[in-house]
Amino acid sequence: MTDIAIQITEAAHRFGGVAALAPTSLSVRRGELLCLIGPSGCGKSTLLNIMGGLLVPESGRAEIFGEAITGPRPDRIAFVFQESTLMPWNTIIENIELGLIFQGAAKAGRRERAAEALAAVGLSEFANHYPSQLSGGMRQRAALARVLCLDTDIILMDEPFGALDEQTRMVLGEDLSVLLSRTGKTIVFVTHSLGEAVFLADRVAVFSARPGTIKTIVEVGAAHPRTPEFVTSAEFAALRNRLYTELHEEIRRTMGPELRLAAASADGGRVAG
Amino acid sequence: MRASRAIQLAFVAVLFALWWQATHGWHVSALLLPTPLAVLLRARVLISSGEVWTPLAATAIEVAGAFSLSAVIGLALGVFIARAGLRIRVAEPLLTALNAIPAILFFPLFTLVFGLGAGSKIALGATIGVFPIALNTISGLSNVERPLITAAISMGASRMALLRHVLLPAAAPSVLAGLRIGLTLSFLAVLGGETIASFDGLGHQIADAADNMEAATMYAYILVVVLVAAVLNQALARLDGFGQRR
């Protein structure tokens, strides 16, 4: 059996004639957590949707475990999205169960499996709450429980903590690292946060500006689960700096040239302040 | 909440006070406006003698028939149209345009086809009630948040599962609002039809009493209609509350 979970070969895509993803190839190893990082609109989410079968690329191929992907594979791939995708009219436990219903799981044991997953993310006491009664962080935690409950080999996460504040994000990242280090699942994680990428990933794939493709891949050696101490280590800082350098010029390229101090000081010399 | 209820009750009280003043102080002719007391006494007689029940039942059956028809047709039409973007683009402006035609114009035709009995009132009520229900169903179903649909599909939801667990619950508040408007319009249409040409019903009694210059009877029946509308409104408010539960 192959050690490659996801194989992308020369995949490219355009939306309405605008190139979103330049031909890109990428192998995701079985059991690793790979982060995709890059400027806005560089095609990270496009690539993720191609991996998950939500989008069929105009050219190139996507395979999981050696099988071509042509549509959603709820038996093997699960998604976590940036927006809350919990159904607002269902309670938290009903939402997790609904994932199993969609997936086609047998009725027997569904409620128990959902309750177990909820316990794993520490939300048992909120089982009968509605999503609107939970904070953004708790909602994403519930979404994580849903994905764990679906028990797929591959989890694709599209900026799952993107709408959350920095502190909540850090804590959820730690939880994610703990939860996932036990399961051996293959995870691809799109993020804008350099720190999040270094903290979570085994490898970080850095995208170039649009139409994006993978510019370089940075390895993160530290073992999982990662602790808050890792965040303050020199290794963490060095990796984060390296990603910053890689990304900076790409982001500049999408945003236009750097502002000149001279141009700014035309506005009444307030720059000095 | 209590203050607003008090103001509403005060508003009704002021109306009655003005009515009383008009008949006692300003001496408006009793042929046009009988005293509140005369009307209330007449209403009591209508109710205690059982005279009111036959027309009330006739109207209730017509409204029930008209609303059931418009609900079934409106919901089915709405779900069918909302299933495809092309159908929405074709049908929605069409329905909106048709809805702008005063359906009461077709009432003479309905009486020719369905007769002067319940049939023509049901046809009119259903014709008027079906549009808001269909339009609200379409708008509810086509405005479901995209990420919810994407997430459900990524988890393997079939078309039926998607409709049942995502689309319909998401559209429920809009659909219920449509049903509420549909019921109100059906009720208005049935009563309107009855006052124009009919054998029976509350609207018929009102028109009849007016023809016979029995002002007290006419107002007593109007009072009954107001009561029925209030009860209906309460029931609908409850329905709306159910739709908004989240």
Question: How would you characterize the overall build of this protein?
Answer:
- The complex is a heterodimer of chains A (273) and B (246).
- By secondary structure, chain A is of the alpha/beta class.
- Chain A is 37% helix and 23% strand.
- Chain A has nine helices and ten strands.
- In chain A, a hairpin with a 6-residue loop joins strand 9 (203-207) and strand 10.
- In chain A, helix 2 (92-103) runs parallel beside helix 4 and helix 3 packs across helix 4 (136-150).
- The model of chain A is unreliable at 263-273 (pLDDT under 50).
- Chain B has 246 residues and is mainly α.
- Chain B is 82% helix and 0% strand.
- The A-B interface holds A 52, 54, 72, 74-75, 77-79, 81, 83, 85, 87-90, 98-99, 101-104, 130, 132, 150 and B 145, 147-148, 150-157, 161, 165-166, 169-170, 172, 245-246.
Top keywords for this entry?
heterodimer, A: 273 residues, alpha/beta, 37% helix, globular, B: 246 residues, mainly alpha, MetI-like fold, 0% strand, elongated
Q: TL;DR of this structure?
A:
The complex is a heterodimer of chains A (273) and B (246). By secondary structure, chain A is an alpha/beta fold.
